[in-house]
Design a protein that fits this description.
- The chain has about 425 residues and is mainly α.
- About 75% of the residues lie in helices and about 0% in strands.
- Helix 1 runs parallel beside helix 5, helix 5 packs antiparallel against helix 6 and helix 14 runs antiparallel to helix 15.
- The chain is globular.
């Protein structure tokens, strides 16, 4: 495929996609640092305050397939820009929400707008960047998502501590508006977009149906739902816990826990090398088991153990997610765009549902929360083990080309396409 190579146009793609990643994930996750402040100011429970995250992610999950259909008709670049601008406009309205109900409604709508950015950014990359440079370009986008999610939380928390949560939200919204403007101005026009021969609803339904009938993909979707849900629930409520006895940390200090997310930039690269050497399946299993161990380490009321457990949990999560998300493309036999979009749907559905349910466990104490997260992660682990141990039963009537990706792992770099979400 001819695409943007290492010239001025290629550098524009890198900067634009980096800005898209930062803007998208700063908007999506900054309220995690504000959950305790929102709970106090609006007099709602921790689970209700966490709806500022879950509302946005459920909106994203519901919208992602629709955005992929629109992009098939009108092109990746223009639709990506529209989605980005809409998300920023809604984000600027969030700090002025007059009630909790309006706040959640705006976050749901913002999530719907954000549904047009993660999958389309990677689809644009796959179509427009020369294959020799695609991995480097994807790495730039992924780094942008990590830094954006981290920056949004680290900026919102101290501003909230000094003024209030609305000021923290407004500062993040203003900064993401600048990032969106940069992305819109820099993103080059598409050179290689071709409208699919069948770009209507029929092709969308066919691609979705094929993906949902593929047992191997269902296992990967389970990983997305369960592991992402556990990851978001951990970060939704751990800061809340650290502001309470026996820790009694200030909001600006508890925001430091989000620095653990930087481990994802390291573990994703290491995971690629490990998977190339040992195969995807063993690395995915070890990562899930390590996540469970990290969650258990956060139970004691001793700050060093809590922080160590969080770091282990986060590092292992990004490793598991890198494997699962990169496995979707090679596993899909038809409708790759719909297969990756469904991964995104399950990914954010888990974020929404499990992230919200974690609040009810938190009402019983952190031990209940950590136990819930450990059980969820071990369920994901069991899904993979069951697939491997019972593959004849699971794949009995499935063609070899569908079953093969979960039975014989390809080298990690051999994926046809890759979708990574943070």
């Amino acid at each position: 495929m001819r695409g943007h190579t290492r010239n001025g146009s290629y550098r524009r793609v890198l900067f634009a996609l980096g800005a898209v990643g930062m803007t998208t994930f700063a908007q999506l996750y900054y309220p995690q640092a504000l959950i305790p402040a929102i709970s106090r100011d609006l007099d709602v429970t921790a689970a209700d305050a966490a709806l500022t995250i879950s509302g946005a992610t459920v909106g994203l999950a519901l919208a992602v397939l629709g955005w992929s259909w629109v992009a098939d008709r009108f092109g990746r670049g223009p639709v990506l820009k529209v989605a980005l601008i809409a998300s920023v406009v809604l984000g600027l309205l969030v700090p002025f929400a007059p009630s909790f109900e309006v706040l959640i409604g705006l976050r749901v709508l913002q999530g719907v707008a954000l549904g047009g950015t993660p999958a389309l950014a990677l689809t644009y990359l796959a179509e427009e960047v020369d294959r020799r440079d695609a991995m480097a370009a994807a790495g730039t986008y992924i780094s942008g998502t990590v830094l954006g999610g981290l920056a949004g939380r680290l900026i919102a928390a101290p501003v909230s501590g000094l003024i209030d949560w609305r000021a923290g939200a407004l500062v993040v919204a203003a900064l993401t508006a600048l990032g969106a403007l940069l992305a819109v101005l820099l993103l080059p026009a598409a050179r290689n977009f071709r409208r699919p021969a069948r770009s209507g609803r029929g092709s969308l339904r066919a691609g979705v149906a094929a993906s949902l009938k593929n047992p191997a993909l269902l296992v990967l979707y389970a990983q997305a739902f369960l592991l992402m849900g556990a990851h978001v629930a951990m970060y939704n409520y751990l800061g809340y816990r650290l502001e309470q006895p026996p820790f009694d940390l200030a909001p600006a200090v508890t925001a430091v826990i989000f620095l653990a997310g930087l481990s994802g930039a390291v573990s994703a690269r290491v995971t690629g090398r490990l998977a190339s050497r040992y195969g995807r399946r063993p690395v995915l299993l070890w990562s899930s088991a390590t996540m469970a161990a990290g969650a258990a380490l956060t139970i004691p009321d001793w700050l060093p153990t809590v922080l160590l457990g969080l770091l282990i949990f986060t590092t292992a999560y990004f490793s598991a997610h890198t494997i699962a998300s990169g496995w979707v493309g090679p596993t899909a036999t038809t409708g790759t765009a719909q297969a990756t979009s469904l991964y995104t749907l399950f990914y954010y559905a888990g974020s929404s549902l499990v992230g919200w349910l974690g609040g009810f466990a938190f009402d019983l104490g952190w031990t209940a929360t950590a136990t819930m997260l450990t059980a969820i992660v071990l369920t994901a682990f069991a899904c993979v083990c069951m697939t491997l141990l019972g593959r004849r039963r699971l794949f009995g009537a499935v063609p070899t080309e569908i079953a093969a990706p979960l039975v014989r792992a390809r080298p990690y770099g051999a994926t046809r396409s890759q979708a990574v979400h943070l």
